[in-house]
Amino acid sequence: MTKKAELHYNGKIYELPIITGTENENAIDISRLRADTGLITLDKGFKNTGSTQSSITFLNGEEGILRYRGYSIEDLAEKSSFLEVAFLLIYGDLPSKSELDFFVEEITQHSLVHEDVRSILDGFPSKAHPMGVLSSLVSSLTAFYPKSLDPNRSKEEINATIIRAIAKLPTLAAWSYKNRMRQPIMYPKNELSYTSNFMHMMFGLPTTEKKISPVVSKAIDKLLILHADHEQNCSASTVRIVGSSHASLYASVSAGVAALWGPLHGGANQAVIEMLEKIKQDGGDVDKYVDKAKDKNDTFRLMGFGHRVYKNFDPRATIIKKAADDVLNELGINDPVLDIAKKLEKVALNDDYFKSRGLYPNVDFYSGIIYRALGIPTDMFTVMFALGRLPGWIAQWKEMRENKEPIGRPRQVYTGSNERKYISIDRR
């Protein structure tokens, strides 16, 4: 028997179908609500509104579950590479050995960007935020590949656009860093892995060959996997709604980068390091700031602890904690800021106040530590996030287009003035 909800309004009863997902999530289908009743729903921030049906990512915040296409994040982070996970998200299944080899080779061969992109890059001041630079450079790819504007192009041409986006984003991301540092750009090297190549372009110099530690490369690869998708978050929803207008993939991803740039979305790991710096500048007394965090009347907040979606623990944090420990041991860094981070971590994992409230160290806490240890500036942290999130954005865009979803067009409840008589300017 089909489940239905009843809406009693204006003396009538309306039946609304209940949609059940494969993980037994239930949703009231209000697709015909306005047509049948004249009503709309009001849900600020869309916290209770499902904008689509998706088969990409399952997230259960209460139980700390995150799965890509049905595969647990724990298995994928341990057993797969980032590009293997990217293939899974975009095409729906884990690739065979031959499929993965071909996928990696295609990406490798398209990692170069048009030389004219350098002219665009040169137009930015060195103080330009790397996320602004990245968003602009990604959007510019539409000019170099105008066929991407055609919403009716073949599947092969769409796939070529996807390959170019994955291949070129590390180059553009690294170049945004080089612009920030006012260093000469580095070109990709085809003999390197996806992650190692990115690190080479980030930290290499024409005068010095950058050696990439396997431990560091593996840690970054895991971080990218953990950030690859996270259901209908702000940036993913932005990519879908921009793409719903039949905008190009590059324009849609550029919009996703802009959404991620906001401090309420992608800036959490940057906020972690800024908090640790503040504690250090104030003498490094961790206990003092733990007490401030517990004080209801104190405005201080511990950044990188707890999560608005995961209510008990962040499954990604457990995975990346080990990677963070491995990186710190590998590099042997002596950094007072990271020492403060270790002390805070110990408190949060053992103090009943934090444990009872689910204020565990999350993925942003550990990713901030890793990036700090690698010498990545804080304003590049969100760029690293974007690099990882790219496959998810592409998968969301591709699913939306293949399902022929309508253009996004939210409604509103108007609260402005009623009709007013126009008064000429000489009488106002």
Task: Describe what this molecule looks like in 3D.
52% of the residues lie in helices and 7% in strands. It is mainly α and 428 residues long. The protein folds into 3 domains: 4-65, Rubrerythrin, domain 2 (Single Sheet), CATH 2.20.28; 71-265 and 390-402, Orthogonal Bundle (Citrate Synthase, domain 1), CATH 1.10.580; 268-373, Orthogonal Bundle (Cytochrome p450-Terp, domain 2). The strands form 2 sheets. Strands 1-2-3 form a 3-stranded antiparallel sheet. Strand 5 (65-68) and strand 6 (71-72) form a beta hairpin. Helix 7 (155-181) runs antiparallel to helix 18 (381-402).
Residue fraction in strands: 5-15%
The CATH topology of the largest domain is given as: Citrate Synthase, domain 1
Order of helices and strands: EEEHEEEHHHHHHHHHHHHHHHHH
Q: Mean pLDDT, nearest integer?
A: 94
The tally of structural domains comes to 3
Outline:
With 428 residues, this protein is mainly α. 52% of the residues lie in helices and 7% in strands. It folds into three domains: 4-65, Rubrerythrin, domain 2 (Single Sheet), CATH 2.20.28; 71-265 and 390-402, Citrate Synthase, domain 1 (Orthogonal Bundle); 268-373, Orthogonal Bundle (Cytochrome p450-Terp, domain 2).
Label this structure with key terms:
single chain; 428 residues; mainly alpha; Rubrerythrin, domain 2; Citrate Synthase, domain 1; Cytochrome p450-Terp, domain 2; 3 domains; 3-stranded antiparallel β-sheet; 18 helices; 52% helix; globular
